[in-house]
TrEMBL record:
Gene3D superfamilies: alpha/beta hydrolase. It comes from Flavobacterium chungbukense. SUPFAM superfamilies: alpha/beta-Hydrolases. This is Alpha/beta fold hydrolase. It comes from the Bacteria. InterPro entries: AB_hydrolase_1, AB_hydrolase_fold.
Length: 254
């Protein structure tokens, strides 16, 4: 069963992180959604955070995990939000289990195919040799040779934990990602449609969802509302959490 943090009372609202992320990335916003009257479930998807590791890693497998999570927690009508990879999971979940989903929010990702573009990040992560028992500073020094952006490094290094005294490790399953690298970019199958209220939010400085993509998004999600957060990149919920919260809660309460 997926690891989750459940807080609050009210309509169940399921939140899913992006690639190499975890539920902790959403802790602050989750607290705000609780105050807004939702029962918030922030998940660690398989091979991420505190959830189980598996050699199988695909969107279909992740959707099945979320379905089993809903069954185990008696969630029969939910609103769902996913960022990046989590947005792809949310899209596939909503289109294959529409009876469970009232409203869908997708943050800075589209249903289209995305070329592999995480090679530098994965090279940096794979360059860390935990057998020599590096310190946190050692790990950051190694990763910084591949990932120059400080914010991205801090996001990645949140995954470091003490597996045992003196022994650091990454929480995510790097071996599974290395073996299934193409899985992350796979498109939503052409024939899938979710016709209930759907909100796509993109970062104005992010290239993940472009104007040219809108028609194809609407084919899958005809009840589409699109919002743009200006001057925000791919991590739009972290760069402008106030506007992100306002847009999402306004949509959820419509």
């Amino acid at each position: 069963m997926l690891y989750s943090k459940i807080e609050g009372e009210g309509k169940p609202f399921v939140i899913m992180h992006g690639f190499l992320g975890m539920s902790d990335n959403w802790k602050t916003l989750a607290g705000q959604y609780v105050e807004a009257g939702f029962q918030v479930h922030i998940l660690d998807l398989r091979n991420h955070g505190r959830s189980f590791h598996s050699d199988e890693w695909s969107y279909e497998a992740m959707v099945q995990d979320v379905y089993e999570y809903c069954q185990a927690n008696n969630l029969t009508r939910i609103d769902i939000l996913g960022h990046s990879m989590g947005g792809k999971v949310a899209m596939l979940f909503a289109t294959t289990h529409p009876e469970l989903v009232d409203k869908l929010i997708v943050a800075d990702i589209g249903p289209k195919f995305y070329k592999q573009h995480h090679q530098e990040i994965l090279s940096g992560l794979n360059a860390v040799d935990f057998s020599v028992k590096p310190s946190r500073n050692d790990v950051e020094e190694i990763v910084s040779q591949y990932v120059s952006d400080f914010g991205t490094r801090q996001f990645l290094l949140k995954n470091l934990y003490w597996k045992e005294p003196g022994q650091l490790a990454f929480r995510f399953n790097l071996e599974a990602f290395n073996a299934n690298l193409d899985a992350i970019g796979k498109p939503l199958p052409d024939n899938l449609v979710f016709d209930k209220p759907t909100l796509f939010i993109r970062g104005g400085n992010s290239g993940y969802v472009q104007d040219a993509d809108i028609d194809s998004i609407r084919q899958h999600f005809p009840n589409l509302k699109l919002e743009t957060i200006p001057n925000a990149g791919h991590w739009l919920h972290a760069e402008n959490p106030k506007m992100f919260f306002e847009l999402t809660t306004e949509f959820l309460k419509e």
